[in-house]
């Protein structure tokens, strides 16, 4: 039975690939995941420290401002500061080292603007702040930092107000601060090309102008290149953040890291946004390397598996073929042994009664000769019958001799044989018969055929048998090709006997050497010729093979060792 | 000249009896035995020139019988009678001292020739 080598190939190949690639992919994926986690962890950590760092810088800025205000308020008396000339001097000193102050004002407990130094003197001098929210807040808390507003100045600014008491009477020092310093601090967090940083108040309104998208006092919105559409969408609301928060927001094409930290002195929140592609660029590159290496590894494994499997399958196929050939030969040999034993048994059993019949007939003949029966009218009939009995016993004896041809255990003779001469001689026996049915015998001898040592008469018997079969196969009008050649490698002589007969069907080809197998008409062939030839050739150390194609003819090949 | 004494040992009754009759008809003193054991018993009392011994017999086969005969009376020439398949037994018999072997079924003439040669050998005449 032929194995399905293709299926076997795939099974082996896929098994090898599977067992190699699955761990490879697993390791690569887990390594990638591990690196991804580490990397994102690092990123988150660095983002957290950045945002807190910036936040602390802003807080520091506020602390300094507030401290300065307290210093001014406490080192000068209320009376001194309400003098606008004096206040102007103080403001100049404050302003000298910091450009952030825009104006300064002194407000009494009742909300009256007692003194003012700044560009909007006429406008603000008259104002009573008694009912302003910031005035109420500063009276309640002692300090107030406002949200950003545009005010009359049309530039973003905010105010810081502190309340101090002098002899139990509270009064308020208020300054307006422009945004530039805060902006500077916030802008330092713009690391990458796409990163952004801004401050929002408790209503999620922008306090500083972000790098991309969004306007002062409006909620921050994502720029178009982040959303991948023409429409902008809002950023998540971090206005209520108290503890520093770092997160990655992913939805659709939108993917960003956000870090938010509350600024302690105000109700503001500093938000930093980073583009993951920028942050994780190296990791992304790593991902491509992993994929590339995986593909390379896969290619190497696949081609290796294919090559290895090819070798393996070829070896299996060779072994299978050898085994098949071997078992075929073994089977044939076993069949021969069994049959020769059986034939020997039958022959002996048949020979004994045959011997008795022969003796009885002989005895009758003796008696016929002894008695004076010549005068008997039936004498001739008796004599004839006894002769016939003897004749047929002889015939039966010959059949059994033939049957036992392959059971014979005689030592083969060792003679020097010129194979070409032997073939000439043997074909000579049959030339007349062949000519009679118009069969031409073509000889194709090789010149380098050496003299072999073997049993001449047995080889002759085989060749004669093969030639007879060839003639029978053709019947009438055809060509028999008798050829010889010498195989130097195996040191064997090959005799080929080919006919142009009807050929043997593939299904019957493996039976031709079986005893009693015949394609000839009943009574014409015993079916023993080829099986006897086969066993003779085996015994002589040679090989008998057959090739045939229906409609084209049959070639028997006889291989004989030189020695 | 003494007449030749031939002893036929074969388990096939028809064969043995007919051969004995035919030999007798040819002025040969022939006798038969149906087994190796019987043959050895007969041999204790009688003497023969030539024994024709079938190889394949029940109880004691021809080879075994031959050994005993050669021990008892080494002078007697023995011809092994074999079925075709047991040629090697015939050859083995010759190694054990048999004169020759004849294959069954053999024409009487052939057997007579061999018997004659054996007899001549026994008498020391070699043709």
From TrEMBL, chain B:
Keywords attached to this entry: Phosphoprotein, Two-component regulatory system
Keyword Transcription listed? The answer is no
Q: Which domain of life is it from?
A: Bacteria
**Name used for this protein in its record:** Response regulator
Query: Which of the residues bear the PTM 4-aspartylphosphate?
Result: 54
InterPro entries named in the record: Bact_response_regulator, CheY-like_superfamily, Sig_transdc_resp-reg_receiver
Fetch the SMART domains from UniProt: REC (SM00448)
Note whether Hydrolase occurs among the keywords.
no
């Amino acid at each position: 039975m032929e194995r399905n080598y293709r299926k076997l190939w795939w099974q082996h190949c896929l098994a090898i690939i599977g067992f190699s690639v699955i761990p490879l992919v697993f390791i690569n994926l887990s390594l990638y995941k591990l690196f991804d986690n580490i990397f994102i962890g690092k990123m988150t950590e660095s983002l957290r420290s950045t945002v807190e760092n910036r936040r602390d810088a802003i807080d520091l800025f506020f602390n300094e401002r507030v401290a300065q205000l307290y210093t001014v308020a406490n080192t000068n008396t209320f009376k001194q500061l309400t003098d606008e000339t004096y206040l102007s001097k103080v403001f100049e000193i404050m302003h000298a080292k910091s450009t952030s102050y825009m104006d300064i004002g002194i407000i009494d407990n009742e909300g009256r603007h007692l003194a003012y130094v700044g560009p909007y003197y006429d406008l603000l001098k008259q104002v009573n702040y008694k009912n302003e929210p910031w005035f109420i807040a500063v009276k309640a808390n002692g300090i107030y930092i406002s949200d950003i507003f545009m005010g009359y100045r049309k530039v973003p600014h905010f105010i810081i107000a502190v309340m101090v008491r002098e002899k139990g009477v509270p009064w308020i020092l208020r300054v307006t601060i422009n945004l530039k310093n805060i902006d500077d601090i916030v802008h330092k967090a713009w690391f990458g090309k796409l990163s952004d940083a801004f401050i929002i108040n408790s209503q999620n309104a922008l306090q500083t102008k972000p790098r991309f998208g969004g306007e002062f006092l409006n909620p921050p919105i994502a720029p178009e290149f982040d959303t991948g559409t023409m429409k902008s969408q809002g950023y998540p609301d971090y206005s209520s953040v108290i503890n520093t928060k770092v997160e990655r927001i992913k939805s659709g094409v939108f993917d960003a890291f956000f870090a938010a930290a509350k600024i302690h002195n105000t109700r503001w929140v500093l938000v930093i946004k980073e583009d993951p592609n920028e942050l994780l660029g190296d990791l992304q590159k790593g991902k491509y390397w992993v994929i590339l290496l995986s593909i390379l590894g896969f290619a190497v494994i696949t081609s290796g598996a294919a090559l290895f499997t090819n070798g393996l399958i070829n070896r299996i196929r060779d072994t299978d073929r050898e085994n098949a050939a071997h078992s075929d030969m073994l089977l044939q040999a076993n069949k021969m042994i069994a049959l020769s034993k059986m034939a020997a048994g039958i022959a002996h059993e048949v020979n004994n009664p045959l011997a008795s019949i022969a003796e009885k007939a002989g005895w009758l003949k003796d008696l016929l000769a002894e008695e004076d029966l010549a005068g008997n009218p039936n004498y001739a009939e008796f004599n004839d019958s006894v002769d016939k009995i003897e004749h047929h016993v002889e015939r039966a004896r010959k059949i059994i001799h033939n049957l036992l041809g392959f059971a014979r255990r005689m030592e083969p003779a060792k003679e020097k044989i010129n194979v070409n001469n032997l073939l000439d001689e043997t074909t000579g026996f049959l030339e007349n018969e062949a000519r009679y049915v118009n069969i031409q015998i073509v000889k194709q001898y090789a010149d380098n055929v050496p003299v072999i040592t073997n049993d001449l008469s047995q080889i002759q018997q085989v060749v004669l048998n093969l030639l007879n079969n060839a003639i029978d196969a053709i019947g009438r009008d055809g060509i028999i090709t008798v050829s010889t050649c010498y195989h130097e490698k195996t040191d064997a002589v090959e005799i080929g006997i080919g006919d142009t007969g009807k050929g043997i069907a593939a299904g019957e080809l493996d039976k031709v050497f079986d005893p009693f197998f015949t394609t000839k008409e009943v009574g014409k062939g015993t079916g023993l010729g080829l099986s006897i030839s086969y066993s003779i050739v085996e015994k002589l150390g040679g090989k008998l093979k057959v090739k045939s194609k229906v409609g084209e003819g049959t070639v028997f090949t006889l291989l004989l060792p030189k020695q | 000249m003494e007449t030749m004494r031939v002893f036929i040992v074969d388990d096939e009754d028809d064969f043995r009896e007919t051969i004995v009759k035919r030999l007798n008809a040819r002025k040969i003193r022939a006798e038969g035995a149906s087994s190796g054991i019987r043959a050895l018993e007969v041999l204790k009392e009688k003497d023969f020139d030539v024994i024709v011994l079938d190889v394949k017999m029940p109880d004691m086969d021809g080879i075994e019988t031959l050994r005993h005969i050669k021990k008892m009376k080494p002078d007697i020439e023995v011809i092994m009678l074999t079925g075709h398949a047991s040629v090697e037994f015939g050859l083995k018999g010759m190694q054990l001292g048999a004169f020759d072997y004849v294959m069954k079924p053999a024409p009487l003439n052939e057997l007579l020739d061999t018997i004659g040669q054996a007899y001549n050998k026994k008498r020391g005449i070699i043709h």
